Amino acid sequence: SAWFFFILITWNQTSPVDVKLRNAQMVSVGISVLVIAGLSFLPMMDFAAHFGGLAMGAALAMAIFAGRLQHRRWRLVTRVCGIFFSGVLPGFTFYWFMAKISPPESLLRVCLPPEC
């Protein structure tokens, strides 16, 4: 998703010669994100990891590529939001994992090789 947001951030900086390439990349990356998001709901797939990666990629892209924006206010707001979410998302994930996740008892019993 970082590539997707990089393209959005640098949208107005594309030379007229490269507009078709930019549009093709945007469509390609957008379709890839949609396909991965759709496939994330299949059985035995971890949709939370895919959406977490999408959110973290967006946050990191905002923090890293904000300097490429043309207006100072947009650069500042985008960078602050990117840094904020880059810190909040891992913290929230760790909290959720420690406070809300409890594995079933059957998974906590480890058997030795002769018994398995």
Q: How would you explain this protein's 3D organization?
A:
The chain is an all-alpha fold and 116 residues long. It is 70% helix and 0% strand. It contains five helices and no strands. It has helices at 2-9, 19-39, 47-65, 72-100, 105-108. Helix 2 runs antiparallel to helix 3 (47-65). The radius of gyration is 20 Å and the shape is elongated. The mean pLDDT is 88.
Relevant terms:
116 residues, mainly alpha, 0% strand
> Strand content of the residues, in percent?
under 5%
Portion of residues within helices: 55-70%
N-to-C CA distance = 42 Å
H/E order of the elements?
A: HHHHH
Put simply, the count of helices is: 5
Tell me the layout of helices and strands.
Layout: H1 2-9, H2 19-39, H3 47-65, H4 72-100, H5 105-108
Summarize the structure.
The protein is 70% helix and 0% strand. It has 116 residues and is mainly α.
